[in-house]
């Protein structure tokens, strides 16, 4: 039987981080499945999902724990299978002048509707015409198949107006 682990990591950004992590996984018969990783402010951060045969799981956990000696900060959680009803995926794209609270307001509106934020990527830069701070975000959300999408779009439009940002909400076609 397979077990699934979700692993989060932070280390100094240097060559070989992914190689050491992937070696520990492969050496213990693990399979690297999903991951998101990035360089942020001199650090390398990531989260990944690994499947491993049940009998090899403890060996993998021990091998990962040994990476702490090389400066890795890891958290390992066993993943639980969750049954979900019919879902649809939406992509939110936001752009506007940066200011505190943008992510919080969007997250609050989604949480109030019990919407799961599956992916979030944000960026910070400056507008080419004025040099003002510019904030961008792209978020993938899962909503119940019977959710009132127009009501959600109306609420996001209200938040966009309050924050002075643009928010686009588009349906993502499901794979067949």
UniProtKB/TrEMBL annotation:
It comes from the Bacteria. GO terms for cellular component: cytoplasm. Residues 91-170 form the ACT domain. Gene3D superfamilies: 3.30.70.260. Keywords: Cytoplasm, Repressor, Transcription. It is found in: Cytoplasm. Pfam families: ACT_6 (PF13740). Transmembrane segments: none annotated. Its main location: cytoplasm. The keyword Repressor applies. One of its GO terms (biological process) is regulation of DNA-templated transcription. This is Glycine cleavage system transcriptional repressor.
């Amino acid at each position: 039987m397979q077990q699934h682990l979700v692993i989060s990591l932070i280390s100094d950004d240097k060559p070989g981080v992914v190689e050491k992590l992937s070696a520990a996984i492969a050496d213990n018969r693990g399979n690297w499945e999903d991951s998101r990783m990035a360089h942020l402010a001199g650090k390398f951060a990531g989260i990944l999902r690994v499947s491993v045969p049940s009998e090899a799981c403890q060996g993998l956990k021990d091998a990962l724990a040994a990476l702490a000696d090389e400066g890795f900060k890891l958290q390992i959680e066993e993943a639980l299978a969750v049954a979900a009803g019919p879902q649809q995926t939406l992509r939110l794209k936001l752009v506007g002048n940066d200011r505190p609270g943008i992510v919080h307001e969007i997250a609050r509106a989604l949480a109030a509707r019990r919407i799961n934020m599956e992916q979030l990527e944000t960026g910070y830069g400056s507008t080419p015409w004025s040099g003002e701070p510019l904030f961008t975000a792209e978020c993938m959300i899962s909503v119940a198949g019977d959710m009132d999408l127009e009501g959600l779009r109306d609420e996001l439009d209200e938040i966009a107006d309050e924050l002075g940002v643009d928010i686009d909400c588009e349906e993502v076609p499901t794979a067949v």
